[in-house]
Amino acid sequence: MISGVTAGSRTPLLMGRNRELARIEAAAREGRPVLVRGRAGVGVSAVLQEVARRLEVSGRRPGRGAGSPWAEVGTDVDITPASARDLIPLAARRGTSLVVDDADLCSPEELRLLAETAWRSSVSLVLGAHADVPLVSQDPSASVIDLDGLDRASVAHLASSLRGEVLDADGGAAACLQRACAGNPGRLTALLDLPEIDDLLVRAADTEDPEELAPEFAGLLERSVLARVGALTLAGQTALAVVLVAGPHAPLALVQGAAGHDGLDEVLASGLLVQVDAETPEPRHGAVGRLLTHTLPWQLRAEAQRLLGVAAERTGLALVRSLPSAVTATWPA
């Protein structure tokens, strides 16, 4: 389902995306559908936030939403999920633009309804996804933008901006960061947010062969994140599992009902989750969320699913599309 119209809670840095942004903005102003694709962490959400900002400045009055696997019980979730009502009226209003993130979490029927309504009203539709959305990618009139990873110069530029100091693009530190994040700006941001990165960057600058430190850079994020998880109580780990299993854009009442305030407060204090205003808590960085999801032990996943089932029944919600399953189980005991 499409969760209601949302406002951007954070403004991520955009590096090396000027050409893509110009293409998206031009297509949206012409009323053509746009699909922005890229692997998780490559910056799809950041690009969509900037596109929405530019459209608003140009007077297009963008409506913003995001795909979610949760819907209200009793609605025809394949056709008109309840919270899509926030966007469907906008799709029928000329002079607007619709920007929908995580569109791959929406059902094909839901997207088709939104797209048909937008087409009849000449409203531009901009979708972001981490997987293909055939409804748009197979449309001859659509613009499909594939976001690739950053090159070393862009990695150095982004790192310099985040740290407030110049990082030589030809230096060992930039080379190690490039290898550790594979050009993924989300993972790079998560790495640079770790206190432990400072020592590694100094060592990379001082050593004759900084490439020898590449394995330490590559494993730093996992070591640091799992150490924080290991410091949580069982209640905190369970609350964290609830957030991960609930998926992106899950309703706040659902997550709070399943996780409990004490457990959520503990994870928020640990820095693993963040909460902006009254929005649903989410991993501080997408790269951290993906790491934790792929290492979530099955016991905690099962308990989180049980708690979410109870909370969903109480809040009148249902899971209408499956969420990714765990790959391994390596959280600290």
Automatic annotation (TrEMBL):
Record key words, sorted: ATP-binding, Nucleotide-binding
GO molecular function: ATP binding
Lineage: superkingdom: Bacteria
InterPro entries to which the protein is assigned, alphabetical: P-loop_NTPase
Stated name of the protein: ATP-binding protein
Organism: Nocardioides bruguierae
